Amino acid sequence: MALSGIQIYKLLPQTNCKECGFPTCLAFAMKLAAKQVELSACPYVSDASKAQLAESAAPPMRLVTLKSNGHEIKVGNEVVLFRHEKTFYNRPGIFIKVRDDEDIQAKVEPAEKFAVSYVGMDLTVDGFAVEATGDPDRFVAAIKTLRQISQRPLVLISSDAKVMAAGLAVLNGETPLICGADANNWEAMADLAKANTPGGPPPHSGGHGQAALVVKADSIEALADLTEKIKGKGVEDLVIDPATKNLSRLLTFSTQVRRLALKKNVRSVGFPIMVFANDSILAAQAVAKYGGFIVLDEFKPETVYPLLVLRQNIYTDPQKPIQVQPGLYEINNPKPESPVLVTTNFSITYFSVANEVESSGLPAWLLVTDAEGMSVLTAWAAGKFDAERIAKAVKTFNVADKVSKKRVVLPGHVAVLSGELEAELTEWEIKVGPREAVDLPAYYKQVLV
What we know:
Layout: H1 5-11, H2 25-33, H3 47-57, E1 64-68, E2 71-75, E3 93-99, H4 104-113, E4 116-118, E5 121-123, E6 127-131, H5 136-149, E7 154-157, H6 161-168, E8 177-181, H7 186-195, E9 212-216, H8 220-232, E10 238-241, H9 247-263, E11 274-277, H10 280-288, E12 293-296, H11 301-314, E13 327-331, E14 340-344, H12 347-360, E15 364-369, H13 376-381, H14 387-396, E16 407-410, H15 418-424, E17 429-432, H16 440-448
Parallel strand pairs: 3-6, 3-12, 6-7, 7-8, 8-9, 9-10, 11-12, 14-15, 14-16, 16-17
Antiparallel strand pairs: 1-2, 4-5, 13-15
């Protein structure tokens, strides 16, 4: 049973050292009781107290980790319902499903090679789900073929424990996700998962790594009953499958489970959610509310790309904007007489400017100033993008040594800085560019050529 804040306080060192980030041990205890901090933040808690505080310290949503050769996916461990309360950390894994009676190579290769650059990051799928059709040999062959193409983590799908055991035997040293256990086979599947858990009995095949287990039922009550039974057999890394592809039912289920786990501390449903999505709308909903592992029926670039972008946007810390490294960047092999465009190091701003100029084929120097990851207007309003900082960047990155025609082009939104920048850079010609990046090519041709 979870402890109250006062009960937790009594188990803490009560030194008020402030090293946890809170002014008193009592304040830290209250946050710990509310699942808003982790016990590890207290450097002086005793081992005896840690044991007693284990349940209160454990996040309400179980952390499930899948591993393969050089790849790792962490799902769960969240402590809030909404991102504005606290950052979401472990984004859902997006997997592509293949059946063992399909052409594995034809279906896996395009997904494995898929990678798109988005504000400086390469977006890719996270892994593959292999569904068995009943024949252990065919299942094994499919997994082996897939492993020749991709080393990404796997979800293995079969309700037959014998077929599942054959598939697991192929994945030596990996941490796959077993899907799955239901009311009819949970004991056999739990035994199989336990045999693949550190400390459990050695599997007959010998040597393959731990496995997480998907538990499937059509109601929250049935799922809670099954998870408790399986946990009683020593299997802790669980994922729950609501057994529905209905948009409304899935949303209701996911929200109820999240609230029960986070608000009521119901441990029997505090696990990531598995979603089998047969269309992009269901998958997008799962990304937003609150899928843990999302398995797509097929790979289509036009479907996967927006899902990856949506996921990236939701799981980017709003207090830590994506930034690019400040510096002087070359676009289209600029010459000494090419203009110097100025912007901030907010990645979306940088890529908006860089992409527009690059696609136009016009050469330019792009000076990126350190604005702590803020956009132009936000940084200007916060005092992080001003004439002094721009002038400092010009000098720091030795821009004058690389250009013969000293022209600096300010973003149109901060035209007010032009006079101040002229005073800072007396030998430079200061120009005011357009407000929007999309207008840069036309401005360049009309004013800078």
